[in-house]
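Input sequence (104 aa), recorded before submission:
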Amino acid sequence: MNAKKGDWVRIHKILLTPEERASRIPEDTRKVPLEMWDKGFLVNDNASPGDEVEIETIIGRRITGCLLEKNPRFSHSWGFCIPETLHIGRQVKQILAEREAAGE
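Predicted structure, token format:
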């Protein structure tokens, strides 16, 4: 996957190494680098994954990082179903209807 100027891409950059992290943050946090992932339009003419590139974000910021992918997809989810929440909407409507009927 090669990307060309103007393509929508995702980049990664290490902002602080563990040695550069502040001493006052929790130890488990201090042990890992501070990382950034961002998306934007490729400014470079051509690039391959792993190349250091410049992008322009949707709000116009220009930042650099390591090219990860072209046309990144959303891979997050809202997690597993929580059965206890399935009936909340109906229960609220029932409670409101009962209060309205009682004149509250």
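Checked by second reader. Helices lie at 27-30, 88-102.
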